[in-house]
Structure formats: C-alpha cells, structure tokens
Amino acid sequence: MRFIVIVKFGTISLLKVIENEITVSLKSRPKGGKANLELIQKLADHFGISKDGIRIISGRPSKKKLVEINI
Predict the structure, then answer these.
(1) Domain tally for the chain?
(2) Non-local CB neighbours of 44 within 8 Å, separated by 6+ positions
C-alpha cells in the first residue's frame, strides 16, 4: 500500500492514519537521514512489520513523503 506521509517535528508523540494519509511526529531532526530512519521505525512499529517492509519512494528531503508499506 502507498501512503502520503506528512512529518511534523516536536516532542508530542503522534501517529494518525486517515485513509491513505499518515501524519507522524518525529523527535529527530532531518540531519544525516536520522528523521527518515525514525519515521521508518515508527511506521514499522505501528503496522507490526519489519523495517524492510517500508520504503520511502519520494520526498526523502521533504516533510511530505510518498511511502510504500508492505502490510
């Protein structure tokens, strides 16, 4: 399944899924790919799958990403 993921930065933990859109809050800043790694981990935990089942298709340097999740 493909989802549009909107990333917000902050200390409040948030992961909300509405249809094909996911809004997620991350603590890591977008330096050296740390935020993308945290995003993949949060999505894997939420969907109960391996991190290998998640791929950022587009938007790696952006707050709005297209992500493929193999559920």
Answers:
(1) 1
(2) 50, 51, 53, 54
Say what the pLDDT of residue 10 is. Answer: 85
Asked if residues 42 and 24 have their Cβ atoms less than 8 Å apart, the reply is yes
Measured CA to CA in angstroms, residue 29 lies from 17, 24, 26, 43, 49 at distances of: 22, 13, 8, 17, 24
The domain that contains 19 carries what CATH number? 3.30.1200.10
Per-residue pLDDT reduced to its tens digit, 4-48: 999 999 878 899 999 999 999 999 988 999 999 999 999 999 999
**The domain containing residue 31 runs over which residues?**
2-69
